[in-house]
Amino acid sequence: MAIPKKIGVLIGSVRQPRIGDQVAAFAAATIKSQSSSTDYTLHTIDLLAWDLPMFKGPEVPKAIKDPANYTHERTREWSAAISACDGFIFVPCEYNYGYPASLKNAIDHLCWEWQGKPVMFVAYGGYGGGKSVEQLKGVLGAFDMKFTEDDVLLGYPSFEWAGEKVFAGKDLGLLEEENVWAGHRDAIVKNFDELLGLTRAPVIATK
Ligand SMILES: Cc1cc2nc3c(=O)[nH]c(=O)nc-3n(C[C@H](O)[C@H](O)[C@H](O)COP(=O)(O)O)c2cc1C
């Protein structure tokens, strides 16, 4: 029997309050209820819970081939968590036309742990968080990560709606059958099935 692929669902926001955790739960619930794939497990990677310190080295991660050589215990733990994953669902918000600093910090702690692995994006924002995804693709290209063909971009219906619900981190009811982003479920499942396919392709280190 094939070993199930381990997929990390990475919540990029550490804002309090926030909606990133609800978006991640929506993506995970959609996959579990609608994907016909069975050979996977989903693991939430919450940067708020990880509370990583600001990256200050001392190592340059690209020079670290053996995680035992990271000076800080927390980096070794973070390395193990990311190494364990075969692929990722990144759930980024958009801050000032880019992805949040918490996510860049988490990425920069490591290098080879990300190398060549596949990613899909479930982003959210006023216009769906597309600018955030665009930036992330540039950065993750440093590790030759593979992207699914489409991105899932969840836009707010109006600024007023966002002001009332999103900014205050209110319950958006995303686990209910009918919700503001219910129409994106098929896209989430399609990208997830593609993501799983990419995890099965051989990873070739080119650097
Ligand atoms: C510092 C900051 C900058 C923001 N900039 C943008 C932006 O450029 N585009 C956008 O769509 N939303 C922007 N927003 C609104 C976010 O989409 C909204 O706050 C969202 O809830 C953030 O995700 P989170 O709740 O998971 O932290 C910004 C919010 C903050 C706090």
Automatic annotation (TrEMBL):
InterPro entries in the cross-refs: Flavoprotein-like_sf, FMN_Rdtase-like_dom, NAD(P)H-dep_reductase
Gene Ontology CC: one annotated term: cytosol
UniProt domain NADPH-dependent FMN reductase-like: residue ranges: 6-150
SUPFAM superfamilies given in the database record: Flavoproteins (SSF52218)
GO-annotated molecular function: FMN binding; oxidoreductase activity
Taxonomic superkingdom: Eukaryota
Residues making up the signal peptide according to the UniProt record: none
Entry-linked PANTHER family: CHROMATE REDUCTASE (PTHR30543), NAD(P)H-DEPENDENT FMN REDUCTASE LOT6 (PTHR30543:SF21)
Descriptive protein name: NAD(P)H-dependent FMN LOT6
Organism encoding this protein: Cyphellophora attinorum
